[in-house]
Amino acid sequence: MSINVTPAMQVKYSNNVKLRVQQTKPKLVDAISWQSDSGAEKVKVQDLVGNTEPQEATERHGDTKYNNPTYDGVWIPKTNELYYADLIDNADRLATAIDLQGSSVRSGAGTINRAKTRRILEGFYGPIISGKEGTTVTAFPSGQIIPATTGGASGALKMNTMKLRAANKLLTQGYADEEEMNGIVRYMVLTADDNDALLSEVPATSSDFKGAFGGEFVNGKIMRMLGWQFIHLELDNPMLTTIPDLATDGSGFRKTPFWIKEGVRGNWWQESRTMVDPLPQKLGSVQVFAGTTLAASRLEPEMSGIILNAKG
Protein backbone atom coordinates (compact mmCIF):
# COMPACT_ATOMS: atom_id res chain seq x y z
CA MET A 1 0.00 0.00 0.00
CA SER A 2 1.36 3.41 -0.94
CA ILE A 3 1.64 6.15 1.68
CA ASN A 4 0.30 9.64 1.09
CA VAL A 5 3.22 12.06 1.47
CA THR A 6 2.07 15.65 1.86
CA PRO A 7 4.13 18.84 1.42
CA ALA A 8 3.65 19.42 5.14
CA MET A 9 5.55 16.20 5.84
CA GLN A 10 8.43 17.37 3.65
CA VAL A 11 8.62 20.69 5.50
CA LYS A 12 8.26 19.06 8.91
CA TYR A 13 11.11 16.64 8.32
CA SER A 14 13.39 19.31 6.89
CA ASN A 15 12.71 21.72 9.75
CA ASN A 16 13.06 19.05 12.44
CA VAL A 17 16.39 17.81 11.06
CA LYS A 18 17.74 21.36 10.92
CA LEU A 19 16.51 22.07 14.46
CA ARG A 20 18.08 18.93 15.87
CA VAL A 21 21.35 19.67 14.05
CA GLN A 22 21.38 23.11 15.67
CA GLN A 23 20.66 21.61 19.09
CA THR A 24 23.44 19.03 18.80
CA LYS A 25 25.93 20.99 16.68
CA PRO A 26 29.43 19.46 16.82
CA LYS A 27 31.89 21.84 18.43
CA LEU A 28 34.35 21.69 15.53
CA VAL A 29 31.89 23.66 13.40
CA ASP A 30 32.20 26.76 15.58
CA ALA A 31 35.99 26.38 15.87
CA ILE A 32 36.79 27.09 12.20
CA SER A 33 35.86 29.79 9.69
CA TRP A 34 33.27 29.14 6.94
CA GLN A 35 32.09 30.21 3.52
CA SER A 36 29.36 28.98 1.16
CA ASP A 37 30.21 28.54 -2.52
CA SER A 38 28.41 25.91 -4.59
CA GLY A 39 29.42 27.31 -7.97
CA ALA A 40 32.34 25.01 -8.78
CA GLU A 41 33.84 21.59 -8.17
CA LYS A 42 36.91 23.30 -6.69
CA VAL A 43 36.60 26.62 -4.88
CA LYS A 44 39.20 29.13 -3.70
CA VAL A 45 38.84 29.72 0.03
CA GLN A 46 41.76 32.07 0.70
CA ASP A 47 44.00 34.52 -1.12
CA LEU A 48 47.51 34.51 0.31
CA VAL A 49 49.79 37.53 -0.08
CA GLY A 50 53.38 37.13 1.07
CA ASN A 51 54.85 39.39 3.76
CA THR A 52 57.29 42.11 2.71
CA GLU A 53 59.76 44.36 4.48
CA PRO A 54 59.09 48.13 4.51
CA GLN A 55 61.00 50.27 2.02
CA GLU A 56 63.08 53.10 3.46
CA ALA A 57 63.12 56.62 2.03
CA THR A 58 66.84 57.48 1.98
CA GLU A 59 66.78 60.66 -0.07
CA ARG A 60 64.52 63.62 -0.71
CA HIS A 61 62.42 63.31 -3.88
CA GLY A 62 63.96 59.91 -4.48
CA ASP A 63 62.42 57.22 -6.63
CA THR A 64 59.70 55.07 -5.09
CA LYS A 65 60.88 51.56 -4.35
CA TYR A 66 58.26 48.88 -4.92
CA ASN A 67 57.74 45.69 -3.01
CA ASN A 68 57.29 42.44 -4.87
CA PRO A 69 55.03 40.26 -2.70
CA THR A 70 54.12 36.73 -3.68
CA TYR A 71 50.49 35.89 -4.45
CA ASP A 72 48.95 32.49 -3.87
CA GLY A 73 45.63 30.91 -2.96
CA VAL A 74 44.18 27.92 -1.11
CA TRP A 75 41.59 25.72 -2.79
CA ILE A 76 39.15 23.06 -1.61
CA PRO A 77 37.86 20.36 -4.00
CA LYS A 78 34.24 19.33 -3.66
CA THR A 79 33.73 16.06 -1.78
CA ASN A 80 30.96 13.50 -2.16
CA GLU A 81 27.73 14.01 -0.26
CA LEU A 82 27.44 12.13 3.04
CA TYR A 83 23.88 11.05 3.78
CA TYR A 84 21.37 8.99 5.75
CA ALA A 85 18.53 7.16 3.99
CA ASP A 86 15.78 4.82 5.17
CA LEU A 87 12.70 3.14 3.72
CA ILE A 88 9.43 3.33 5.65
CA ASP A 89 6.46 1.14 4.68
CA ASN A 90 3.85 2.24 7.23
CA ALA A 91 2.01 5.56 7.46
CA ASP A 92 1.95 5.55 11.25
CA ARG A 93 5.66 4.79 11.39
CA LEU A 94 6.39 7.63 8.96
CA ALA A 95 4.49 10.14 11.08
CA THR A 96 6.48 9.05 14.13
CA ALA A 97 9.83 8.94 12.30
CA ILE A 98 9.66 12.54 11.08
CA ASP A 99 8.68 13.92 14.49
CA LEU A 100 11.34 15.98 16.30
CA GLN A 101 12.28 13.01 18.48
CA GLY A 102 11.65 10.48 15.73
CA SER A 103 14.18 7.92 14.53
CA SER A 104 14.63 9.43 11.06
CA VAL A 105 15.15 12.93 12.47
CA ARG A 106 17.67 11.74 15.04
CA SER A 107 19.51 9.52 12.55
CA GLY A 108 19.50 12.18 9.84
CA ALA A 109 20.79 14.87 12.18
CA GLY A 110 23.38 12.51 13.64
CA THR A 111 24.62 11.66 10.16
CA ILE A 112 24.96 15.33 9.24
CA ASN A 113 26.81 16.12 12.47
CA ARG A 114 29.25 13.24 12.06
CA ALA A 115 29.71 14.23 8.42
CA LYS A 116 30.73 17.74 9.49
CA THR A 117 33.22 16.42 12.04
CA ARG A 118 34.62 13.91 9.56
CA ARG A 119 35.05 16.35 6.68
CA ILE A 120 36.64 19.02 8.90
CA LEU A 121 39.19 16.55 10.24
CA GLU A 122 39.83 15.08 6.79
CA GLY A 123 40.64 18.59 5.61
CA PHE A 124 42.85 19.25 8.62
CA TYR A 125 44.95 16.12 8.20
CA GLY A 126 45.02 16.37 4.42
CA PRO A 127 47.37 18.41 2.21
CA ILE A 128 46.95 22.10 1.40
CA ILE A 129 46.00 22.60 -2.25
CA SER A 130 47.30 25.91 -3.55
CA GLY A 131 48.60 27.71 -6.63
CA LYS A 132 46.98 29.82 -9.32
CA GLU A 133 44.80 26.95 -10.52
CA GLY A 134 44.84 24.85 -7.37
CA THR A 135 47.33 22.28 -8.64
CA THR A 136 50.06 22.50 -5.98
CA VAL A 137 49.72 19.90 -3.22
CA THR A 138 51.64 20.39 0.04
CA ALA A 139 51.61 17.72 2.74
CA PHE A 140 51.40 18.46 6.45
CA PRO A 141 54.78 20.02 7.35
CA SER A 142 56.95 18.03 9.76
CA GLY A 143 57.98 21.28 11.43
CA GLN A 144 54.43 21.69 12.76
CA ILE A 145 54.45 18.37 14.61
CA ILE A 146 55.26 18.12 18.34
CA PRO A 147 57.15 14.83 18.96
CA ALA A 148 55.70 12.11 21.20
CA THR A 149 58.83 12.29 23.37
CA THR A 150 58.25 15.94 24.38
CA GLY A 151 58.25 16.35 28.15
CA GLY A 152 60.35 13.31 29.03
CA ALA A 153 63.91 12.03 29.01
CA SER A 154 63.18 9.19 26.62
CA GLY A 155 60.33 7.21 25.14
CA ALA A 156 56.90 8.19 23.84
CA LEU A 157 54.57 9.91 26.28
CA LYS A 158 50.88 10.61 26.59
CA MET A 159 49.55 14.17 26.57
CA ASN A 160 51.32 16.43 29.06
CA THR A 161 51.70 20.11 29.89
CA MET A 162 55.08 20.37 28.17
CA LYS A 163 53.41 19.39 24.90
CA LEU A 164 50.74 22.07 25.44
CA ARG A 165 53.48 24.64 26.03
CA ALA A 166 55.41 23.47 22.97
CA ALA A 167 52.29 23.82 20.80
CA ASN A 168 51.68 27.32 22.17
CA LYS A 169 55.27 28.27 21.39
CA LEU A 170 55.02 26.85 17.87
CA LEU A 171 51.93 28.91 17.02
CA THR A 172 53.30 32.10 18.55
CA GLN A 173 56.65 31.84 16.76
CA GLY A 174 55.08 31.00 13.43
CA TYR A 175 52.30 33.56 13.32
CA ALA A 176 53.15 36.71 11.37
CA ASP A 177 51.65 39.28 13.76
CA GLU A 178 52.14 38.29 17.38
CA GLU A 179 49.96 41.17 18.58
CA GLU A 180 46.97 39.69 16.79
CA MET A 181 47.42 36.43 18.69
CA ASN A 182 46.19 38.21 21.81
CA GLY A 183 42.50 37.40 22.06
CA ILE A 184 42.52 34.68 19.39
CA VAL A 185 41.26 31.36 20.73
CA ARG A 186 43.54 28.39 20.29
CA TYR A 187 41.68 25.11 19.86
CA MET A 188 42.81 21.56 20.48
CA VAL A 189 41.01 18.22 20.30
CA LEU A 190 41.25 16.25 23.53
CA THR A 191 40.34 12.57 23.85
CA ALA A 192 39.30 10.93 27.11
CA ASP A 193 42.78 9.41 27.34
CA ASP A 194 44.43 12.82 26.84
CA ASN A 195 42.13 14.39 29.43
CA ASP A 196 42.98 11.70 31.97
CA ALA A 197 46.71 12.06 31.33
CA LEU A 198 46.60 15.81 31.98
CA LEU A 199 44.58 15.33 35.17
CA SER A 200 47.14 12.79 36.36
CA GLU A 201 49.84 15.45 35.98
CA VAL A 202 47.92 18.48 37.24
CA PRO A 203 44.86 17.40 39.30
CA ALA A 204 41.89 19.73 39.06
CA THR A 205 41.98 20.05 42.84
CA SER A 206 45.55 21.39 42.90
CA SER A 207 46.28 25.07 43.46
CA ASP A 208 48.24 25.23 40.20
CA PHE A 209 45.32 24.03 38.06
CA LYS A 210 43.37 27.30 38.20
CA GLY A 211 46.34 29.47 39.09
CA ALA A 212 49.48 28.92 37.05
CA PHE A 213 47.77 26.72 34.44
CA GLY A 214 44.55 28.73 34.05
CA GLY A 215 42.49 25.55 34.15
CA GLU A 216 38.72 25.23 33.86
CA PHE A 217 37.14 21.91 34.84
CA VAL A 218 33.54 20.82 34.10
CA ASN A 219 32.01 17.40 34.79
CA GLY A 220 35.33 15.60 34.80
CA LYS A 221 36.63 17.31 31.67
CA ILE A 222 39.30 19.98 31.31
CA MET A 223 37.74 22.71 29.19
CA ARG A 224 40.60 25.25 29.23
CA MET A 225 44.25 25.09 30.20
CA LEU A 226 47.43 27.04 29.36
CA GLY A 227 45.54 29.17 26.84
CA TRP A 228 43.93 26.23 25.03
CA GLN A 229 40.22 25.68 24.56
CA PHE A 230 39.66 21.95 24.38
CA ILE A 231 37.14 20.17 22.17
CA HIS A 232 36.45 16.74 23.61
CA LEU A 233 36.27 14.21 20.80
CA GLU A 234 37.28 10.57 20.37
CA LEU A 235 39.49 10.43 17.29
CA ASP A 236 39.35 6.62 17.27
CA ASN A 237 35.54 6.59 17.02
CA PRO A 238 34.75 4.07 14.23
CA MET A 239 31.59 6.05 13.38
CA LEU A 240 33.92 8.70 11.94
CA THR A 241 35.04 6.05 9.40
CA THR A 242 38.17 7.64 7.86
CA ILE A 243 39.37 9.54 10.94
CA PRO A 244 40.83 6.78 13.17
CA ASP A 245 43.42 6.00 10.48
CA LEU A 246 44.09 9.65 9.59
CA ALA A 247 44.54 10.50 13.28
CA THR A 248 47.13 7.76 13.85
CA ASP A 249 50.70 7.97 12.55
CA GLY A 250 52.85 5.10 11.29
CA SER A 251 54.19 4.41 14.79
CA GLY A 252 50.72 4.14 16.29
CA PHE A 253 50.77 7.56 17.99
CA ARG A 254 47.64 9.69 18.16
CA LYS A 255 47.88 12.82 16.00
CA THR A 256 46.19 15.42 18.21
CA PRO A 257 45.22 18.48 16.13
CA PHE A 258 45.51 22.10 17.28
CA TRP A 259 44.79 25.35 15.43
CA ILE A 260 43.42 28.88 15.55
CA LYS A 261 40.01 29.58 14.02
CA GLU A 262 41.45 31.61 11.15
CA GLY A 263 43.79 28.73 10.31
CA VAL A 264 41.12 26.31 9.06
CA ARG A 265 38.39 27.10 6.50
CA GLY A 266 35.31 25.12 5.57
CA ASN A 267 33.08 25.44 2.51
CA TRP A 268 29.44 24.46 2.17
CA TRP A 269 28.24 23.19 -1.17
CA GLN A 270 24.95 22.18 0.45
CA GLU A 271 24.66 22.35 4.23
CA SER A 272 21.51 20.27 4.40
CA ARG A 273 19.45 18.30 1.87
CA THR A 274 16.34 16.44 3.01
CA MET A 275 13.64 14.47 1.20
CA VAL A 276 10.51 12.49 2.02
CA ASP A 277 9.44 10.77 -1.20
CA PRO A 278 7.28 7.78 -2.15
CA LEU A 279 9.11 5.26 -4.33
CA PRO A 280 6.89 3.39 -6.82
CA GLN A 281 9.64 0.85 -7.46
CA LYS A 282 9.55 -0.04 -3.75
CA LEU A 283 5.79 -0.81 -3.68
CA GLY A 284 4.98 2.68 -2.49
CA SER A 285 7.37 2.70 0.47
CA VAL A 286 8.65 6.13 1.44
CA GLN A 287 12.29 7.17 1.30
CA VAL A 288 13.47 9.43 4.11
CA PHE A 289 16.76 11.13 3.19
CA ALA A 290 19.11 13.63 4.86
CA GLY A 291 22.53 14.63 3.55
CA THR A 292 25.20 17.31 3.51
CA THR A 293 28.07 18.32 1.22
CA LEU A 294 31.08 20.16 2.65
CA ALA A 295 34.86 20.12 2.84
CA ALA A 296 37.61 21.92 4.76
CA SER A 297 41.29 22.77 4.60
CA ARG A 298 44.07 24.24 6.64
CA LEU A 299 45.09 27.65 5.30
CA GLU A 300 48.55 28.86 6.29
CA PRO A 301 50.66 26.02 7.77
CA GLU A 302 51.88 28.14 10.68
CA MET A 303 48.34 28.46 12.07
CA SER A 304 47.93 24.80 13.01
CA GLY A 305 49.85 21.74 14.13
CA ILE A 306 49.79 18.23 15.55
CA ILE A 307 50.88 16.75 18.87
CA LEU A 308 51.91 13.09 18.80
CA ASN A 309 50.66 11.20 21.86
CA ALA A 310 51.08 7.62 23.01
CA LYS A 311 47.75 5.78 23.19
CA GLY A 312 46.38 3.48 25.85
Describe this protein's structure.
This protein has helices spanning 7-23, 27-30, 91-97, 103-125, 161-174, 178-181, 192-201, 207-210, 243-246, and strands spanning 33-36, 42-49, 71-77, 82-88, 128-130, 136-138, 145-146, 186-190, 216-218, 221-225, 228-232, 254-260, 264-278, 286-298, 304-309. Helix 1 (7-23) crosses helix 4 (103-125). With 312 residues, the protein is an alpha+beta fold. It has 2 domains: 7-48 and 73-132 and 266-298, Major capsid protein gp5 fold; 143-262 and 301-309. Strands 7-15-12-8-11-10-9 form a 7-stranded mixed β-sheet, with helices on one face. It is built from 9 helices and 15 strands.
Mean pLDDT score? 90
Strand content: 25-35%
Task: Give the spatial strand order of the biggest sheet.
Answer: 7-15-12-8-11-10-9
SSE pattern: HHEEEEHHEEEHHEHHEEEHEEEE
Distance between the termini: 53 Å
Largest sheet: 7 strands, mixed
Structural class: alpha+beta
Roughly what percent helix?
A: 25-40%
Query: What is the domain tally?
Result: 2
For the record, the CATH class of the largest domain is Alpha Beta
Helical run tally:
9
Low-confidence stretches: none
Number of strands: 15
Features:
single chain; about 300 residues; alpha+beta; Major capsid protein gp5 fold; 7-stranded mixed sheet; 4-stranded mixed sheet; 15 strands; about 30% strand
